[in-house]
Amino acid sequence: MSQASTEIVRISGHAGTVPGAGLNREYQVCKLVDTTTCIGCKACEVACLEWNGYTFSETTFDNTYQTMPETAWNYWNLIKFNEHERADGTMMLLMRKDQCMHCADPGCLAACPADAAIVQYANGIVDFQEEHCIGCGYCMTGCPFNIPKFDPPSRKVFKCTLCNDRVSVGLEPACIKACPTGCLHFGTKPEMKELAETRASHLRENSGFPDAGVYDPAGVGGTHVIYVLHDAKNPELYGGLPKDPRIPLSVRLWKGPLKWLGNLAMVGGIVGMALHYMRFGPKKEEPIPPNENSDERRV
Amino acid sequence: MTTDAVSRSSAANQNEETIVRYTFFERINHWLGAFSYIYLLITGLAFWSPYLYWLAAIVGGGPAARFWHPWFGLVFTASLFVTFVQWRGDMQITDADRAWGRAIPDYIKNEDDKLPPVGRFNFGQKLFFWGIFYGLILLLLSGVMLWYTETLPWSLRFVRYAAILIHASVALITIGLFLIHVYMSAFLEEGSFGSMILGRVTRAWAWTFHRTWYYQVIGRTQPSSSLPKR
User: Do A283 and B188 touch (CB under 8 A)?
Assistant: First the structure.
């Protein structure tokens, strides 16, 4: 909802109030994925490909419903299947739509060295600007969800945009439009959070899923894609959704203490050497004392 | 003209005479390493801090810097390997070096006459060499992981985490060594920089800074009077 950028708050030479002032909605957007009503039809995958102009990728058969192991640079949305046997011996086919989570505290953005290659909009969307991408792959190291994917020929990294191009003109993301069961919802973060919590409490109270809950991990500041899970205590069951995703410790050390320590050491070293020169001056050769002179010329 | 005057004049001439310190091939290799390191430094610092990202612009922009950085890393590796083959023997640390190392405050204060005589390279130069040598091994291993980071499967992501931290930390250590090296050779010790260009130093320079080596080169035993007055 990047109308935020074009919403007028002041007008020159204008009598009266600004038209539309005070009418703004909550601008933080959110996609809700209710894994409990997903049937794994993959319509969202097709819609994603169609809207973004990619073709269906080749599938790999691994004796399950999984069509390919993970998302790709040109395949941003993939249903992760897991045949899960429960403690009582019954089987559940867990399906989760995997895509960029649009973290409030994005590890990709923290790790990226290229000016303006990754931006976070006020509405919460984290978007890659490929024209500024240098192809270093640091975002792949920073992301706790294995989302950014490298395209070797173009040497650029790609991922789900949360259909920023659609959202910015007031449309829902393409995947939302395609979902036949209504397991995908799109709206503001508080609305989606409320809807998700309501659904989770129904699952706990009426459907025999006492551990049902909402996945909105705090370790990355919350996400702009949230899940309803039957078993929120074991998110790993859903195609490896991390339990407590965080920006990796090494990335935080590298971008935090190491950066300050390194900068201080480099600047301190240069200053120190300048001071040393000013205090002690250059080392000069000294003439060889006559008694140590040699007549031998062997060089 | 007294005998004394003649001898003094001859001494002055000898002081100005030059001897070979670095062969042509050693110098070529040094500058291959130096320029590839400077390229790596410029591009590496561009990736290190947003405030230094402009450095990428002077070598063709971010994508070009990212593309060439690993290749220049290989050039630097090749150069350092040649250096290793050339100087491995001269770089062995001896007891004399350790004695010199203990007297390093005198060296810092430019009181070089108090230092024990050293061979072709002093202890500081040897530490520099081995620091860069072992640093490069770590930079190379972590660098390859970062070069082809997309080929590492998600289950091996800890390799990425380790590589990114090792590469930056070790690079900083080599930058420290590099800065000291540049300061000492280009500014502090007069005659050093020129010796890496034309390969020659004066006898007086060699006698002052690398006395043991000087006597080896001229083929004379080191007189006991040249040992440090302590």
Answer: yes
Mutation for testing the A interface, residue in B21, B149, B193, B195 having most A CBs under 10 Å: B149
- B189 vs A277: CB contact, 8 Å cut-off? no
What digits encode the pLDDT tens for the residues A75-97?
999 999 999 999 899 999 999 99
Where chain B has pLDDT below 70, the residues are 1-12, 224-230
Q: What pLDDT does residue A71 have?
A: 96
Q: Which residue spans of chain A are classified as CATH 3.30.70.20?
A: 27-246
Quote the tokens at residue A254.
Answer: 């590298």
Q: Is B217 on the interface with A (CB under 8 A)?
A: yes
- For A287, which of B112, B168, B204 is closest by C-beta distance? B204
Helices (H), chain B: 3-16, 24-48, 62-87, 95-102, 104-108, 123-147, 157-182, 192-198, 203-209, 211-218
CATH architecture assignment, domain A27-246: 2-Layer Sandwich (3.30)
pTM metric for this prediction: 0.89
pLDDT tens readout for residues A197-253: 999 999 999 999 999 999 999 999 999 999 999 999 999 999 999 999 999 999 999
Q: Which residues in chain A are classed under CATH 1.20.5.480? A: 248-284
Instruction: Give Cα separations from A214 to A205, A219, A248, B163 (angstroms).
Output: 15, 14, 23, 34
| Cβ A134 vs Cβ A114: under 8 Å | yes
Cβ separation A288–B11 shorter than 8 A: yes
- Whether the CB of B100 is below 8 Å from some CB of chain A: the reply is no
Fold for the domain defined by A248-284 = 1.20.5
Is B208 an interface residue toward A (CB < 8 Å)? yes
Task: Give residue B5's pLDDT.
Answer: 42
